[in-house]
Amino acid sequence: MNKITKARKYNSSKLQELLDEVSPLEMEQTKTKMKLAARIEDYMRAKGWNKSQFAEKVGKNPSEITKWLSGTQNFTVDVLTEIASTFDIELTALFGKHPIPVVYRKEIVVNSVATPTAIKLITPYEHGVSFLKLVSVQNG
Amino acid sequence: MNYEIVEMEPFSGSEAKVYSIIPEGENVTLFEKFVDENKVVYKEEIKDILKRLKQIGHATGARESFFKHEGDNEFFRKYGKYVWALYDDEEKKLRLYCIRFTNVAIILGGGGYKDKSVLKWQDDENLSEEARKIIAYAEIILKQLDDGYLYWSNNGAELEGNLKNYDNE
């Protein structure tokens, strides 16, 4: 039987000194960028889009979307307006606090020799969501 | 390979636990060593990393999109996606490796300067050493989790158990 031990708390004066050089405003700016990125990603997932699909909707490369979602992007108002418009939401919603219901989907494709030749199952697997969609896929 | 996993107090928070590793015989964590080695030449970039780590711990959690998947194919096939680097775009000069457990926890490793001309860590001696080091730690830690020497707290947020992994203790 293992004894329960938690990690020792570790603080370093050198790290703290560097952190002390960061002003509250700088820290807030980083927080805003990261929370904004998280929110954009949640809206993207809520739409059922992956990065490539989102990139296509906004006419960008997927690598640009990776940067947008990294929490390091300093967005312009024009770009944020475009993103909000793509999600069909108000610009202010990107800065909101209420959680965005995100449905994660998994796809299982079962090949078969019978008709229909394939069955595509699409099901959310995030907790709290319970529906199953059955789609028959025709070849050709 | 003896080491201790410690919780990094300024960064660890309610949204994600931030840990690092102190190898046996050393006084500082792998992360602190990385900071020490780079804080003079790349001070602003180091401060940017510190700011982001603090927000990961206290505001956002360790979301996948804040990281880049790293490691090698052999490790990935065997264990899955556990070795990551904090996101850095091509303009950034530093790379920081970590072990990431979904959104809830990260264990910070070391890292170093990344040259623009280097496309893979395998092509850079210093990054190779740091990447291989974090891969080696990840293998041991994942095995410890599999074997029950390390485990997650009841709320799934904290690592508990044999956090000081010394042969003689």
Structural class of chain A: alpha+beta
Task: Give the CA-based shape of chain A.
Answer: extended
Classify the oligomer: heterodimer
Write down the secondary-structure element order of chain B. EEHHEHEEEHEEE
CATH architecture of the largest domain in chain A: Orthogonal Bundle
CATH superfamily of the largest domain in chain A: lambda repressor-like DNA-binding domains
Named CATH architecture of chain B: 2-Layer Sandwich
Number of strands of chain A: 4
Walk me through the structure:
The complex is a heterodimer of chains A (140) and B (169). With 140 residues, chain A is α+β, with helices and mostly antiparallel strands. The longest helix of chain A has 23 residues, at 24-46. In chain A, β3 (118-124) and β4 (133-137) form a beta hairpin. Helices cover 41% and strands 16% of the residues of chain A. Chain A has a three-stranded antiparallel sheet, with no helix packed on it. Chain B has one domain (3-155): RelE-like (YaeB-like fold). Chain B has four helices and nine strands. In chain B, the strands form two sheets. Chain B has a seven-stranded mixed sheet with strand order 3-4-5-6-2-1-9. In chain B, β4 (83-86) and β5 form a beta hairpin. Chain B is globular. Chain A binds chain B through residues 2, 4-12, 14-16, 18-19, 21-22, 26-27, 30-31, 34-35, 37-38, 41, 66-67, 69-72, and chain B through 4-10, 17, 19-20, 22, 28-29, 32, 35-36, 39, 43, 46-48, 50-52, 54-56, 59-60, 63, 65-66, 87, 89, 148-149, 151, 153, 158-164. β1 of chain A pairs parallel with β1 (3-8) of chain B, so a sheet runs across the interface.
Keywords for this entry:
heterodimer, A: 140 residues, alpha+beta, 434 Repressor (Amino-terminal Domain), 5 helices, B: 169 residues, YaeB-like fold, 7-stranded mixed β-sheet, two-stranded antiparallel ribbon, 9 strands
Q: What can be said about this structure in brief?
A:
Chain A has 140 residues and is of the alpha+beta class. Helices cover 41% and strands 16% of the residues of chain A.
